[in-house]
Automatic annotation (TrEMBL):
Annotated Pfam families: Lectin_C
Top-level taxon in the UniProt lineage: Eukaryota
C-type lectin domain ranges (all copies): 1-108, 109-180, 181-301
SUPFAM superfamilies xref list: C-type lectin-like
Keywords: Disulfide bond
Name this polypeptide is given: C-type lectin domain-containing protein
């Protein structure tokens, strides 16, 4: 298969993502991703590859808050299209490197107490180790911290907590694969919230499993009930009095759940006063049917992510 590299404005890219996501989600290998890389080694912001917004710190899943870095000259270069993780070299500079390489690594604990772990591990295993025994792989916000880690590393090439999201242009936020839900703190009716999500993300949030719910909990910190993408379709009542389980639809598909997962609060849905056709999630993550004309914050969904 082959891909055409396209470079439209970002707004267009977002539209493209929404309309073509199914096709885009079929990359099967790193070779597929490589084919998508910029043919011209351009340093202008790109959707894929080496732009500064594609780098994340392990502990936050976000780009640096300080923009500090210490890349070696010519790095990152994504050698062979396979370098998504970052090492500190023996001169304290940073190189992007193949995540499958096994190297010692530096964890940190609490307020930046660094510890070098001499065990040779892949970046992913190193990350898991640090998370299990310390806080995370080392985050470096400034030159002083870089020096501290350099001295800990004692002349080894070590993994640090920086990695690259290989594919981020279908999600213009700085979130990671751990967080594909976006809490929007604007008060809107359900319909306006749906429109907002469709224009800026993919759709209102779809929750088809406990895993989805868990993923939502991290960004979901509101103290108010918030719209999710579930609504009752009166057209499908077919003579019943409403709110039968088959009449609920997810905004993104217009269809009932493919998994039958739900998290209704006890006694819900109750279609109070015959006016509750839209669904909110409460702060305990349970669902209530609610009046669609109420204005509430809401949760958008960005669709599936592809990353290395
Ligand atoms: Ca490199
Ligand atoms: Ca209700």
């Amino acid at each position: 298969k082959s891909y055409v590299f396209i470079s439209p404005p970002l707004t267009w890219a977002n539209k493209f993502c929404r309309e073509n996501y199914t096709n885009l989600a079929t990359f099967e290998s790193m070779d597929d991703l490589k084919m998508l890389q910029r043919p011209d080694n351009s340093t202008s912001p790109s959707w894929i590859g080496l732009d500064s917004n594609s780098w994340r710190w392990s502990v936050t899943g976000k780009t640096s808050t300080t923009t500090y870095h210490n890349w070696a000259s010519g790095q990152p270069d994504n050698g062979n299209g396979k370098e998504f993780c970052v090492t500190m070299r023996t001169d304290a500079t940073w190189f992007d490197d193949n995540c499958a390489s096994t190297r010692p690594f530096v964890c940190y604990t609490g307020q930046r107490t660094y510890t070098m772990i001499p065990n040779l591990m892949t970046w992913n295993n190193a990350q898991a180790y640090c998370r299990a025994h310390h806080t995370d792989l080392a985050t470096i916000d400034n030159a002083l911290q870089n020096e501290e880690i350099f001295s800990q590393a004692s002349a080894n090439i070590v993994w640090i907590g920086l990695y690259r999201v290989a594919w981020s242009w279908c999600d213009r936020s700085t979130s990671t694969f751990r967080n594909w839900y976006h809490y929007v703190d604007l008060l809107m009716t359900w319909s306006d919230a749906q429109k907002y999500c469709r224009e800026n993300y993919t759709n209102l949030a779809t929750l088809e499993s406990m895993d989805d719910l868990k993923m939502l909990q991290r960004p979901y910190s509101s103290t108010s009930p918030s719209w999710i993408g579930l609504y009752d379709d009166p057209e499908s009542w077919k003579g019943t009095l409403g709110s039968d389980s088959n009449s609920w639809r997810w905004s993104v598909t217009g269809k009932t759940s493919t998994t039958t997962y739900h998290n209704w609060a006890s006694g819900q849905p109750d279609n109070l006063n015959g006016k509750e056709f839209c669904v909110t999630m409460r702060t305990d993550a349970t669902w209530f049917d609610d009046n669609c004309a109420s204005t509430r914050p809401f949760v958008c969904y960005t669709g599936k992510r592809i990353f290395a």
